[in-house]
Amino acid sequence: MLYREAGEFKTAYAADAATFPIAFDRWRYYGVLAIAFLVIPLTINDYFASAVLVPFLIWSIVAIGLNILTGYCGQVSLGTGGFMAVGAYAAYKIMTAAPDLNILIVVLLSGGVTAAVGVLFGLPSLRIKGFYLAVATLAAQFFLVWLFNRVPWFYNNSATGQISAPERSMFGFEITGPMASAEAKYLFCLVIVFAMAWLARNLTRGRLGRSWMAIRDMDIAAEIIGVDPLRAKLSAFAVSSFFVGVGGALFFTVYLGAVEVGEAFGINKSFLALFMIIIGGLGSIFGSFAGAAFIVLLPVFLKNVMVGALGWPTDIAAHFEFVILGALIIFFLIVEPHGLAALWRTAKEKLRLWPFPH
Amino acid sequence: MSADFLNLIEVILNGLMAGVMYALVALGFVLIFKASGIFNYAQGVMALFAALTLVGLQQGQVPFAHLIKAVTGLDVHHWWSMPTLLALLVTVGVMILFAFLVERLILKHLVNQEPIILFMATIGLAYFMEGFGDLMWGSEIKKLDIGIPSGGSFWLEEATIGWAAEGERYFGMYIDLLDVWATVIAVLLVVSLMLFSQYTKTGRALRAVADDHQAALSVGISLRTIWVIVWSIAGFVALVAGIMWGSKLGVQFSLSLIALKALPVLMLGGFTSIPGAIVGGLIIGVGEKVFEFAIGPMIGGATENWFAYVLALLFLVFRPQGLFGEKIIERV
After folding, report:
1. Looking at residues B165-176, what average pLDDT do you find?
2. Mean pLDDT for each consecutive 10-residue tract of chain A (358 residues)?
3. How far is A54 from chain B (nearest CA, A)?
4. Where are the alpha helices (DSSP H) in chain A?
5. Could you read off the pLDDT of A131-154 as tens digits, one per residue?
6. How far is B200 from chain A (nearest CA, A)?
7. A47 compared with B151, residue with greater pLDDT
8. Quick check: B15 and B288 in contact, CB under 8 A?
9. Given B125, B132, B320, which is nearest A127 (Cβ)?
10. So what's the pLDDT on residue B226?
11. Chain-chain contact of B312 with A139 (C-beta, under 8 angstroms)
12. Higher pLDDT, B225 or B269
């Protein structure tokens, strides 16, 4: 009843090309934004922010970034963890070198640095394809982590080899450091996520996004109709790495506060990001959010059930987490290989026809 | 000969033998990739799982002991310690059962999906097996000993100690006997695999499937049976790799990471070539040991973590299909 395009008359091309052409979708989108910006900050508490919301927001940015590269441009990457590390270390270096710089600018600059590194590691993609490329991106993962571990310049010669985020504030509120409040962290991430998702959505609708998708669907055919593979692939690597870098910078500055590179940005993070976009749906911005939510919430949920409710030792719970995560991934791939986003699309299709499906 | 030169020879020899160990893991990948086009990320975890099962049976652990204790409070520890040979046979049986279950529960449902989806499924499988293996046998580091000699070879040390030039301090070459055995076993394994695929009916069917799925189907070869067989063989190869790596490093979680080391080996050799897996393994093994020996100390050491990948990456830029891989022909 609610979900109909009947009766919606468009009088301008702009309305035709809108992201949410159906009124119900539009209002739902405004509703979600209103809840996210107005309701949640009032009800948030420390546990909820640090265990669920902040990691969810940060992983959403990373997932959108990887989705641009893998879902939209078809280049599988296993180097996400390494690129997140670039973002984190760039943020650290910039913060310690220029203490007066606004934290928002620091985060964006780290994204820029990561984009440059991403383009560098994206260069082989012009020659290498498919699985070979996926394995080649592992070179980025291992090399970058090793670099940040071994070269003292990156962690300012600190004795532990760790980096920790200095305190920075915006509008008088602490954003990073131990004194930062849950609301400030949450809102800071939320604003960035909102802007980045908006950017990603519009990039993928435009000329650039279409050239990515053409490359994904068949690169030789795309080349023949005039898409420049060099530009398309490298821009995908740049934009994707920018997102991942911003995610990594936030992960370090806002979420963790102190980081040991091998542990925080290891190969497991690359796989987690890949799981997110597979479970969420390749080539879908909504899917990136859904996948991030799923992967972030699942361990919290399982831990609460097994350790909290059943009282099992934590190590058994941790093993079970692996078993369940693995089984769920296989289950999802069998039942719905195109992810949660495809389920969402099917549900919307059904709603349109309801109550008279033919 | 100068001591430096002798050291270099020692490094190269050790690199060659490390390369054999990588090739052992890479072999399992190639077998499955050729027969089903699946890039099986779980190969390393299969090696871990096989080694865990072997040790567990050998020491007579009760499977799921921790879980049973957590759920029912029942404290069960030890059961009957199997003799090594029987434990080996049972482990092979477990790996065959595993192959059967994988085909039944996963592959059957994913036929004709895109390669990336199948790849993701094997990553899911790897996660599952990792957790499952730990649940079943516990996650502490275990010592694996099935009677393969290990430790340095005194004979070689004695023999080489006089080779250095007069007046230089040199203590002879150190080569682990285990590595030598691993090389022998790897050679035997490859030869028997080759004989199997050349001279048996099943082997011929395997090659037919590797050549062309559709054609193989049309002459009456059952793809599903072949997949079970291939996964069983890969399971067996994983067991051998697991025994070798497990005797060397102890059976522990990090064994599953050797799969990652096998990936650059595959890239160098090409995903579809068994000789490629071996040559690639040797190149990577020697390359990373020599690099660590010659350049590592200058740039902070531990270069073995990434050298293989960067080498493979640079190599691929010039030859995208690897050394022995099938030439990639693209059509619109």
Report:
1. 66
2. 74 83 82 84 79 89 92 87 92 85 88 92 81 81 86 78 77 74 84 91 90 88 89 92 93 84 84 87 88 88 79 78 86 83 85 77
3. 25
4. 13-16, 23-34, 40-43, 46-48, 54-66, 80-97, 103-122, 130-150, 182-205, 207-217, 219-224, 229-250, 261-264, 267-280, 285-303, 314-335, 339-353
5. 778 877 888 888 888 888 888 788
6. 32
7. A47
8. yes
9. B320
10. 86
11. yes
12. B225
SS in 3 state form for chain B? Answer: CCHHHHHHHHHHHHHHHHHHHHHHHHHHHHHHHHHHCCCCCCHHHHHHHHHHHHHHHHHCECCCHHHHHHHHCCCCCECCCCCHHHHHHHHHHHHHHHHHHHHHHCHHHHCCCCHHHHHHHHHHHHHHHHHHHHHHHCCCCECCCCCCCCCECHHHHHHHCCCCCCCCCCCCCCCEHHHHHHHHHHHHHHHHHHHHHHHCHHHHHHHHHHHCHHHHHHCCCCHHHHHHHHHHHHHHHHHHHHHHHHHHHCECHHHHHHHHHHHHHHHHHCCCCHHHHHHHHHHHHHHHHHHHHHCHHHHCCCHHHCHHHHHHHHHHHHCCCCCCCCCCCCCC
Distance CA A3, CA A252 (A): 41
Q: CA of A221: which chain B residue's CA is closest?
A: B332
Q: Using CA atoms, how far apart are residues B290 and B297, in angstroms rounded to an integer?
A: 11
- Provide the percentage of residues in chain A whose pLDDT is more than 90: 20
Nearest to A171, CA basis, from A162, A181, A163: A181
Q: Find the closest chain B residue to A314 by CA distance.
A: B70
Say what the pLDDT of residue B172 is. 65
Give the pLDDT confidence score for residue B1 in this predicted structure.
65
- Domains, chain B, with CATH or none: 3-318 (1.10.3470)
Displacement of CA B331 from its chain's centroid (Å): 34
Q: What is the pLDDT of residues B42-82, one digit of tens each?
A: 888 888 888 888 888 887 777 777 777 777 767 666 677 77
Distance from CA of A250 to the nearest CA of B (A): 26
CA distances from B138 to A347, B51, B53, B55, B64 (A): 43, 13, 11, 11, 8
Mutate to test the interface with A, among B128, B310, B323 (most CBs of A within 10 A): B128
Q: Which among B66, B106, B128 has the least Cβ separation from residue A316?
A: B66
Report ipTM for this prediction.
0.81
Rounded to two decimals, the pTM is 0.85
| Rounded Cα distance, B233 and B241, in Å | 12
Chain B 102-141, residues with CB within 8 Å of chain A CB atoms: 105-106, 109-110, 113-117, 119-121, 123-132, 134-135, 139
Q: Residue type for A148, please?
A: F
Rg of chain A over CA atoms, in angstroms? Answer: 21
Q: Is B154 on the interface with A (CB under 8 A)?
A: no
Name every chain B residue with its beta carbon within 8 A of the beta carbon of A312: 70-71
Query: For residue range A221-257, what is the model confidence (pLDDT) as tens digits?
Result: 888 998 888 889 999 999 999 999 999 999 988 888 7
**pLDDT tens profile B94-148:** 899 998 998 888 888 887 777 777 888 888 898 898 888 888 887 777 777 776 7
Q: Which residue has the tokens 């309801």?
A: A354
Dihedral (CA of A125, A127, A130, A131) sign: negative
Residue B310 with chain A: CB contacts under 8 Å: 139, 143
DSSP state letter for A159: T
